[in-house]
Amino acid sequence: MSTSAPHPPAGTGAPLRARVVRAERGALLVVPDDDLGAAARRAELPRDGLLPLPDGTRTPPTVGDVVAVVAVVGDARDAWPADGPHAPALHATALHPRRTAVVRDSAGRTSLEQVVAANVDVVLVVEHLDPDPDLGRVERLLTLAWRSGARPVVVLTKADLVPDPDGMAAEVAQVAIGVDVHAVSVLDGAGLDPVRALLAPGVALVAVGASGAGKSSLVNSLAGRQVMATGEIRADGRGRHTTTHRELVPLAGGAVLVDTPGLRGVGLVAAPDALDTTFADVAALAAACRFTDCSHEREPGCAVRAAVASGELAERRLVSWHKLAREAAYQARRADARLAAEERARWRRITRDHHRALRGHGAPRP
């Protein structure tokens, strides 16, 4: 991440706290941080699209971020500028520290991380009951949620399409240890009351899940109005992308919810504590292994393998743990290499600038 900051716009007033509703190329849509239901205003970003954190690190803002914005006027302002044809332009100048952050490994071969949403209190892990829920995907998304620092809640949609939604929810609850699991139907409203109970004033939620899981329909139902487009399921049972961007949606009662595009693949950012929380049953068994560094493969005295052999732990559960642990470790190695390269590049820039200063601006090389 870059650490060189451009100069703020001239003639700016006092900084205002704003919440990011939507991040676009070169600009943000923002609302006052103390009035999330207000009409959104456009705030220009610096040319590089990055904002500085208090430590000087520059990073791209995302939905849910709290940013400092200034109005390009001659006098300081302590109120949100009124909109209209003569309204002053807004510029985003800084990023406030994030309380929580939903982070995924970016798509492709890079080791960069992508912040899906910031400053959320609840992560709704949305999975469909028809087709049958994918337990491995639920475990992956729960690990994503636990790492964020927010509270995960599993919402199983399309309960009206299956004969035994409660039984299916009980199966999912076996892999969602310590997490509330709700089977809901947006069509008839069944099971939505405990989800609506989460919508307290000031609470921010984010919905994550695969395409076709019913996230946008859930958002529309919770909002009480059509705020997100919905689509049909394809013939092969997979969902179509209906949400193409992340956006902060105000809900009745003062809560806000971030809808996200369907995540066809969710790369995990290394988070051993999050994995241990998602797989609390595996972690508890591992504590009884003979060797503290047991990989739960072929070591003698492995309590985890013994639990699989006795039927106490499902083989699928251990396979899923191995898969996510390997993936998280691989991402950590890539991130370490990237950070080391960035640090070397930073010192090269510092050294180059130092030599330029010694020579004097525009002086030729000796």
Question: What features would you describe in this structure?
Answer:
The protein has 366 residues and is of the alpha/beta class. Helices cover 28% and strands 21% of the residues. The protein has 8 helices and 15 strands. α1 crosses α5 and α5 packs across α6. The longest helix has 45 residues. It starts with 15 loop residues before the first strand and ends in a 7-residue tail after the last helix. About 3% of the residues have low confidence.
Q: What is the residue-mean pLDDT, rounded to a whole number?
A: 84
> Low-confidence parts, pLDDT < 50 over ≥5 residues?
233-243
Secondary structure tally: strands: 15
Sequence of secondary-structure elements? EEEEEEEEEEHEHEHEHEEHHHH
Kindly report how far apart the N and C termini lie. 32 Å
* Biggest sheet details: 6 strands, mixed
Radius of gyration: 24 Å
Q: Note the beta-strand portion.
A: 15-25%
Global morphology: flat
Number of helix segments?
Answer: 8
Q: Which structural class do the helices and strands define?
A: alpha/beta
The level of helicity is 25-40%
What would a concise description of this structure say?
This protein is α/β, with parallel strands linked by helices and about 375 residues long.
SSE layout and pairings?
Blueprint: E1 16-24, E2 27-32, E3 41-44, E4 51-52, E5 58-59, E6 66-71, E7 90-95, E8 101-105, E9 113-118, E10 122-128, H1 135-148, E11 151-157, H2 165-173, E12 180-183, H3 193-196, E13 204-208, H4 215-223, E14 247-250, E15 256-259, H5 272-278, H6 280-286, H7 303-310, H8 315-359
Parallel strand pairs: 3-7, 10-11, 10-13, 11-12, 13-15
Antiparallel strand pairs: 1-2, 1-6, 2-3, 4-5, 6-7, 8-9, 14-15
